[in-house]
Fold this protein.
Amino acid sequence: MDFLDSLNPQQREAVAHTDGPLLILAGAGSGKTRVITHRIAHLIHTLGVPPYSIAAVTFTNKAAAEMRERVEKLLAGHNSVSGLVVSTFHSFCVRLLRRDGTALADLRPGFTRDFTIYDEDDQLGIVKSIYRQHGIDEKQFLQYRAAISRISHAKNHKLSPEEVLNTAKDPKTRKLAAVFEEYEGRLRQANALDFDDLLLESVRLLRHDGRTRGAYNERIAHLLIDEYQDTNRSQYELMRLLTEIHQDVCVVGDEDQSIYSWRGADIRNILDFEQDFPKALTIRLEQNYRSTKNILDAASKVVSNNTQRKGKWLWTSADAGAKIGVFEAADGENEALFIADSIEKLLRDAPGERVAVLYRTNFQSRQIEEALRRYGRKYRVIGGFSFYQRAEIKDLLSYLKTLASPLDSVNLLRIINTPARGIGKSTVEQIERYAIENGMAMWPAIGRLLEENAFPARAAAAVAVFRDLIEELRDASTKEPLDETVRLILEKTGYTRMLELDDSPDSEARRENLSELVNAAAEAAERGEGISEFLDHAALVSDSDDLDEQAQVSLLTLHNAKGLEFPFVFLAGLEEGLFPHSRSIDSETALEEERRLCYVGMTRARKRLTLSWAHYRRRFGGGPGEQCIASRFLSEIPRELVEPFGARTAPREVNLFAEQYAVRESARKNTFTGKTYNSLDNISEFFAARGVAPIPPNAGAEGLRLVQPKPPAGAATPAARGKKTGTGSIIDHPRYGKGTVIRREGDGEDAKLTVSFPGYGLKKIVAKYAGLKSHE
DNA sequence: TGATTGTTTGCTCCA
DNA sequence: CAAACAATCA
């Protein structure tokens, strides 16, 4: 059996070159996964390399699992792959630190191998607590998230709090340095590592601990790194530290697909590879096996507008295929309906095919979901609100973390009064203050305060109950299997009871989520996992990990689409300010990354690619929206490759002076944001709210094109129109003069109107008090 | 203390 | 629109 036969010459060379550093510049769809898997199979089968001396690092757990599976398949009946390491950098580091991290305690006092991993929520908790402690006002200083990202940035650039302080040029940065220092202190006190630390501390450990480094170097004779263009500096250093002996490192990447610079990805890693390894061989894979010629040409043309690239031109032997569809929608809803309708037609002609709808930001999924639901089409949203981010799941995980590590104050804080057990704000503050004053974690502080009788009577009782509860559960957690522990937590803390008493519509869904968690715990327990492995898993799963290949329609962000392919792809929201995102528009570098993102998105499509944009898009639910112009990326696609279709009629004019100003302001401040909402679970409620019957699946798009553009915001009800204060109508205000109604809440005389008055801006007024005269 | 109500405000993308 | 927070009252 030969793993070279089915490959093209460049791929073959890449697979066969196994005795020195190798850089594979693999264009989109050029078969890089194929090369990696074949390379591993070749090493094991043909060269007789033991699987355990091969390590492959990928970007997501899902990619890792898939890769392992494909290698297994290739070697089926010939070799076992047991011992082969395929994982993400983060998982790799967690395992390294858990298994061989003891020596890190030399550099990081208090570190033990059963450290906790802090996710973004935990970080937020720490920063909030620090702000509270120092009386910092979020509004006057940095927003929590901004502070976190600046801290993370500093860490990734190997800056200590002192260095931040010393190089600070403004008071804000000096203050940030103080927050940073405190933040690091809190992590250490809780024996916790954040995501950055997982990598950073692994690097420090390997630097410091020669024995461990030696052992890993000895063992890993062949290292493969996928998506190399998105590695950051620590990942790079890790690679260097792991390849000191064998130097057989194979990195695969594509500088045109580098889309994670905001997370610290350092493009130098790929650009300088040949300098770092003078003996390196570079191989380019430029034949694309995925897309039609039109798709490939369009994508290549777009990305060729970038200056920071090595430059390559993909080619294909495939047919031209369909042209790139470009739909110009009146508004976001229209766009969503168009997509849903097209999918419907498409799947009627080609049942069983997979379709993806890609977008720049998560909030865009909401409208598309609604449209798909309207057609009764099943879909799957990847990312956004993942299972492990749900409040009830996080609560339960917090209990587990609290049981596993008594010094973890952040998680203790989360659950101390959930469900409510009489430990109120003032009591919590008392504990927190005491803990900080005495430099201890909150859990021991609770014990001390109880001993000293420092609580008011009622609080003392509640806190004592809580302490006993946690101790009881902690004791149980050491004896019982994991799922039993989870079940005990649900029961003893009254969490289940709390949900049972809650008659809100989503409490049932929450209970189901929790029972799913119990199942997950049971499965983990069967695999012999304890609390910390279970928590590691929860911390390291990524949104794209739960991509269901079977789902016919997938909704996902462009970032999540990396590495995937679909026969049919819709790319929505190609508007200036949205994609490219307004935050990236001022910087040439950031803009180029947006363009690469566009390239990634376009090259996901195999057969047909449809782009769309809307003239008018609402940012938050019913609020005033914004007029948009087409993304520059659209104009970068050669006209002859485009098939324009859709309503060419301009949407209703929203030429309001004040609103335009407001729009520009908000665009400047980038309020183009949104959350991924858990979509409405109740379909009939959804339709009832809109007073429409679901469109039957076979309704066809012909009617759709005639859909009148929606009025700009908050559809005017017939009643409202009767009063002539509906949206869009002009009213006369005694003080502000003539203005246009932009938004209307409520009915009749009680209605609250948002009116745009030229020269005064947006005003909220109540119809019956304002003494309005309406015009028509 | 904690439930309820009102008000504000969303700086993307993610392991 | 919906989450997060603040203010208010029982």
Q: What stands out?
A: The mean pLDDT of chain A is 81.
